[in-house]
Amino acid sequence: MNKHADEIRSVVVEREFAFPPEKLWRALTQPHLIEEWLMKNDFKPAVGHRFNLRGDWGGVLDCEVLAIEPNKTLSYTWNHEHEDAAYNLTSVVTFTLTATSGGTHLRVEQSGFRADQPKAFGGAKFGWQKFLENLDQSLARND
Amino acid sequence: MPQPHDILFRTLADPTRRGIFERLCRDGEQTVGALTARAGVSQPAVSKHLGVLKQAGLVRDRHEGRQTHYSAQLGTLAPLIDWTSQMTGFWQSRFDQLEDLLKRMDQ
Fold first, then answer.
1. In angstroms, rounded to a whole number, what is the distance separating the alpha carbons of residues B42 and B33?
2. First vs last Cα of chain B: how many Å apart?
3. Collapsing DSSP states into helix, strand and coil, what is residue A3?
4. Residue spans of alpha helices (H) in chain A
């Protein structure tokens, strides 16, 4: 798990939806729809557009559109700056849509995070960050 | 699919129980008696909390004579701290919401 500190890690989640790619594409690229399943945002489907995703927990993600191929691929940066650099998250999220007989196969890959920074996002989305930070401090004192 | 997160969050949601766990993290192994002295609740209540923490894998007990010593098992928190398992859970839950949205959308 910690063989190479600079090793790039990624997360892949895939699911088949019983709806055509065009419909998924709208949910992935229209701000009012993105908000319904992901987060509040000021997304625009244009390469180079910078936008924010705002989470319920108060966190703000800095994003920039990297690639768009309608109904097929959408890619943007997904960065989160934390006052403690050890918690910084620098990653790229890529959605890939593939039409299937029953609808659409959606794959999301989030990558770019380094193995030596295992704590990014630590509990932030659950509002548990403070607890984990306190715990971290306790552990640091025990070392 | 049951998420390991759920059990951990449920277990640590109780402030008294979380306090006991934090004390074990901070001060190392302790007996039920020592924990009770600072928990502000009765010994049976502390024992009950320790039982729940043990079930979640957050503490381990060690018997020595008539005393039981408890220690924190920090590795159990890895799913909360490790970003890959966290983000996997995040995207799975967002896909659930996406599916709900798609059902509501016209066309």
1. 10
2. 30
3. coil
4. 21-29, 31-37, 129-142
Sheet containing strand B67-72, strands side by side? B30-31, B67-72, B59-64
CB A140 within 8 A of CB A117: no
Q: In the numeric block, which tokens belong to residue B25? A: 């993290």
Total-model pTM: 0.61
**A77 has which bridge partners?**
A92
Please tell me which of the candidates A15, A121, A134 has its beta carbon nearest to residue B83: A121
* Residue B10 at interface with chain A, using a CB cutoff of 8 Å: no
- For A1-18, the pLDDT digits (tens) are 444 545 667 888 899 999
pLDDT digits over B61-99, tens only?
999 888 899 999 877 876 666 677 778 878 888 999 999
Long-range interactions of B41-49: CB distance < 8 A, separation 24+: B41/B16, B45/B16, B46/B20, B49/B14, B49/B16, B49/B17, B49/B20
Closest chain A CA to residue B28: A142
**H or E stretch covering A91:** strand A89-100
What tens digit of pLDDT does each residue of A25-45 get? 999 999 999 999 999 999 999
Question: Up-side HSE of residue A68: CA atoms within 13 Å toward CB?
Answer: 14
Q: Which residues of A touch B102 (CB under 8 A)?
A: 17, 19, 23-24, 27
Nearest to A132 by CA among B38, B82, B3: B82
